[in-house]
Design a protein that fits this description.
mainly alpha; two-stranded antiparallel ribbon; 2 strands
C-alpha cells in the first residue's frame, strides 16, 4: 500500500466521523446548490406537488437574494430562483467544501488557522459581492452576469475558506482556542 492511498483512507475515515453541525451544513449547502436551478424546472413541470416545491424555493430565494428577478432563464418563462451573483457565492462555498473534503482541512489557504488576520483577509475578500451590488445600485454600471458571477464566486470562496474548517472540524472549539480566540 502506498503513502497516497494510506493518506486518502485517513481522510475518508476522518470524514466518516462527521459531527452533526457538519451534516446540517452539508444538507443546507446541497439545498442551496440544487434548489435555485431546479426551481424553474419544477415550476414548469406542472406535475402534482412539484410547482408547490418550486414556490417554496422561489420564496426562499426572494428572501436571500437582493435581485432574484435577475435570475437566468432556464425553463422560460420561469427563471432561476436567485441571481448569478448569489449562485456564484453558493458555487464558491461548494468548491471550498469539496476542497475541504479532499484535503481534510490541511493547507495554507484555510483562513481559520490565521486567527484574526484570517478574519480580516476573509472579510476584505467577502466585500466583492456587496461592493459590486452597491456600485450597481448607485448606477455606476448595470447588471451583467459575466461581472456578478465571478464577484459572487470570490465572496463564496472567501467565506468558505474561513468557515469550512469551523463547520467540518470535529474539534472546532479546540481550533478556535488554538488561535487565541475565546471559547464560546
Amino acid at each position: 500500500m502506498n503513502a497516497a492511498s494510506t493518506q486518502m483512507k485517513k481522510i475518508f475515515a476522518r470524514q466518516l466521523q462527521i459531527p452533526w453541525v457538519s451534516i446540517i451544513a452539508d444538507i443546507m449547502l446541497a439545498g442551496m446548490v440544487v434548489g435555485p436551478p431546479a426551481a424553474p424546472f419544477l415550476a414548469a413541470s406542472g406535475f402534482f406537488l412539484l410547482p408547490g416545491i418550486a414556490n417554496i424555493i422561489y420564496f426562499m430565494g426572494s428572501h436571500v437574494c437582493p435581485q432574484p428577478h435577475m435570475g437566468i432563464d432556464l425553463a422560460p418563462p420561469f427563471i432561476m430562483a436567485v441571481c448569478m451573483r448569489c449562485y456564484g457565492t453558493v458555487t464558491g462555498l461548494l468548491i471550498t467544501r469539496l476542497l475541504y473534503f479532499a484535503t481534510g482541512g490541511r493547507g495554507f489557504y484555510w483562513l481559520t488557522q490565521y486567527g484574526w488576520s484570517g478574519v480580516a483577509f476573509s472579510s476584505v475578500l467577502m466585500m466583492a459581492y456587496p461592493l459590486e451590488l452597491s456600485a450597481q445600485v448607485l448606477g455606476l454600471w448595470s447588471f451583467n452576469n459575466y461581472v456578478v458571477t465571478p464577484l459572487g464566486l470570490i465572496t463564496g470562496l472567501a467565506w468558505g475558506l474561513f468557515t469550512m474548517p469551523i463547520l467540518h472540524n470535529p474539534n472546532n472549539i479546540d481550533l478556535a482556542a488554538n488561535n487565541g480566540w475565546e471559547k464560546v
